[in-house]
Amino acid sequence: MLGQFIRKILLTAITLLILSLISYVILLRDPLNDFADSNIVMRYVYYLTALVQGDLGISYISGEPLTAQILAVFPATLSLCLSALLLALVLGLPLGLFAAQFQHTTLGKLLTTLGSFSFVFPVFWLAALLLYYASVNQWEIAAVGDLHPIYEIRPLTGFKLVDISLSESDYQLKMMQSALHHLALPSLVLGIPATLEVMRLTQNRAIYVMKQSYMRVALTRGWSSFKIWRTHVLGNTLPALVPLIAHLFTVIFAFEILIENIFSISGIGRWLINALMVQDYNAISAASMAIGIFVLSINLLSGLMTTLLDPAKKKDWYV
User: Fold this and answer.
1) Which residues, at least 6 apart from 95, have a Cβ–Cβ distance to it below 8 Å?
2) Minimal CA–CA distance to 115: which of 187, 183, 206, 186?
3) Fewer C-beta within 10 Å: the chain N or C terminus?
4) What is each CA distance from 152 to 170, 171, 175, 232, in whole angstroms?
5) For residues 288 and 292, what is the distance between their CA atoms, to the nearest angstrom?
6) C-alpha 26: how far from its chain's center?
7) Do 10 and 3 form a contact (C-beta atoms < 8 A)?
8) pLDDT value at position 91?
9) CA 253 to CA 247: how far, in whole Å?
10) Does position 149 have pLDDT exceeding 50, yes or no?
11) What is the DSSP-derived secondary structure letter of residue 229?
12) What is the mean pLDDT of the chain?
């Protein structure tokens, strides 16, 4: 396991180097950056040194450090990703296990068919459709933005719910309710395809486990169905889903970048679109670097968690 983890770190470092080259090329396309009388290679070395130190440059529009701006908008994106992933896990895992247990019934076949439509519908179209439907029916969750404009909250962590809980306002409960209303509809939009995908992955893995020989051995020993599912099915299904769930999280993250502008969420996606509109090459380069580092960190963390949770991979410690 240790050797695999070291190789994964090396591959991640190489990917980061390639990503830094791409972000540097974006800076080269900026007409305000004049590299005619300077060494491009040395400028890249200086740029790479600044990246290692956490310096992403400054914005041409506001003149503020880009690192501070990204850290200010990233919590909103992360909050929505986590809420959509939580919704997908709470609904998708039990539905997937149910579909695996009753795969030959009509309801099981229906769930299998629904799972195949996980990423069929465009999430951008789904977001506009649900927002229109919620607005026409005057649902309270038909809200755009992060919080109602009548409320003011001091940004301590960047996460709205956490900042509201830390505030000492007399309207704390109302602010919490407003934040949840603004979070509900985009979470539902992202959670629908994510739930179907989690259900499909869980069902496929559970069916594979149920076909193994140790399942038949447990039946011959007289184990109850509950004990078989608790010991074998869940123990061999859930750890194998960790890398798949991490991949799903990155997919949710990519989808959210597309819909943040629809719901006026002050996240990294909307911030990047605004940078593209005003052609702020420094901000575009910094955003591509920050998004790449985030996705690579998630993949690296999922690989480590899979190795620690999967019993089949722990044997590598003793080789």
Assistant:
1) 111, 195, 199, 202
2) 206
3) C
4) 12, 10, 9, 51
5) 6
6) 25
7) no
8) 92
9) 10
10) yes
11) I
12) 82
- The HSE-up count of residue 134 (CA atoms within 13 Å, CB side) is 20
pLDDT digits (tens, 9 = 90+) for 288-306: 888 988 888 888 887 777 6
- Please report which confidence band the pLDDT of residue 50 belongs to, taking 50, 70 and 90 as the band edges: confident
Task: Residue 82: name the closest of 245, 201, 283, 236 by CA.
Answer: 245
Mean pLDDT calculated for residue range 203-218: 80
The CA distance from 71 to 76, in Å, is 10
Q: Which two tokens stand for residue 76?
A: 């909103």
Please count the other Cβ atoms lying within 10 Å of the Cβ belonging to residue 168: 6
The helix/strand/coil state of 65 is: strand
Tokens 């998708």 map to which residue?
92
Spell 110-124 as b/e; 16+ CB within 10 A means b.
ebbeebeebeeeebe
Which of the four pLDDT bands, split at 50, 70 and 90, describes residue 317?
A: very low
pLDDT over 60 at 314, yes or no: no
Among residues 101, 84, 114, 78, the alpha carbon closest in space to that of 295 is found at 78
- At 84 the pLDDT is 92
CA distances from 113 to 109, 134, 196, 199, 200 (A): 6, 27, 10, 11, 9
- Here the tokens at position 138 are 């005057």
Exposed, middle or buried by CB within 10 Å (0-12, 13-18, 19+), for 88? buried
What residue type is assigned to position 167 of the chain?
S
Residue 244 half-sphere exposure, CB side, CA atoms within 13 Å? 20
* Residue 86 clears pLDDT 90, i.e. is over it: yes
Give the model's pLDDT for residue 266.
Answer: 85
**Residue 173 and residue 102: Cα distance in Å, rounded?**
43
